C-alpha cells in the first residue's frame, strides 16, 4: 500500500495571482497537516531546484495560479526532476491555459461555447482601433465580455454593454496580456464545476452557483469575503445540473487533463450550459470554489487532497 512521505506544496510565483496562490498553498498545507502528513511549502524561485535535488519530495501539490503555474512551465521542470505531482501534464496545460485554443478543442467535441474574436494588441493598434472594434460589435452584437487570452482570477476582464465602452475594456485587458478574447456575453447563471479523478476516472463535484454583488465575478468579488453569494449545490434543475457536470467532464477529458480541474460555465435562460474556460490549478482559498464543491459533495478537503497526492504517486 502506498504511503505519503514528504509532500511539497508549490505556491507563490511571480504572476499577478501570487497572493491568491500563497493563500491556496497555505490552505492545502493546513488540511494536509491536519491529516498527519509531512508537508512543506516552497516558492518558485532560484532555490527551488537545488532544494528538490538535495531533498527530493515524494510528491508535489501545485497551487500556482497563472503564468508558469498553469501554462506547463513549472510542471516541465518537475518532469525533468522526475518528481510526481498533482495535475495535468505540461502539454495539456499549455492547451488549456490558452482560452481560444481550449474553446476550439471543446467545441470540436460538441460542447457549446460563446462566439468570440481573438485580437492581438498589435492588430488593435496597427489596423485602427475604431474600424476593427466596430466590426466586432457588428458581428458579435452586444453585450460582450473582454478578457486576456491567458491568465485567471478575472484580471483584465470586463463586460461591455455599449459600443463606446469597448475601447476602454480593450486597454484594461491589454494591461494583463498581449492578446484579447472578445466573447459574446451570455446572460444567465454562472456556475463552476470542479472535476476530480482519484484513479477511477473523472467525476464532477456538485456545481457551485456564483452571484456577485455587482453582477460581475471580478478579482475583488472572488477573493473578498462577503462580496459574492455562493450556492453549493447550484440552484439548477436536476437535468441542467447534470448537463453542467457532463460538460465539465467532457472538457476535462477532451483537453487531456488529469487529477483535478475546474470548468467555468454560463447557463442561459433556456437552461443550456456554455463552456467559458477551464482552470488546471483551481483555487484552494477560503473563498475558492473547489473547497465549496467538495463540501457540497460531503467530501473532506484534506482527504481529497490526500487522494490526489496518492493518485500522482501511483503514476511514478
TrEMBL record:
- Residue ranges occupied by any ATP-grasp domain in the UniProt entry: 103-310
Task: State the superkingdom.
Answer: Bacteria
Instruction: Please list the residues that bind Mg(2+) 2.
Output: 277, 279
GO CC field: cytoplasm
* Needed cofactors: Mg(2+); Mn(2+)
Q: Please list the coiled coil stretches.
A: none
Record key words, sorted: ATP-binding, Cell shape, Cell wall biogenesis/degradation, Cytoplasm, Ligase, Magnesium, Manganese, Metal-binding, Nucleotide-binding, Peptidoglycan synthesis
From the Swiss-Prot or TrEMBL record, state where the protein is found.
Answer: Cytoplasm
Q: Which biological process, per GO, is one annotated for this protein?
A: peptidoglycan biosynthetic process
InterPro entries in alphabetical order: ATP-grasp, ATP_grasp_subdomain_1, D_ala_D_ala, Dala_Dala_lig_C, Dala_Dala_lig_N, PreATP-grasp_dom_sf
Tell me which family the UniProt entry assigns to this protein.
Belongs to the D-alanine--D-alanine ligase family.
Q: What is this protein called?
A: D-alanine--D-alanine ligase
| Species for this entry | Sphaerisporangium rubeum
Gene name of the encoded protein: ddl
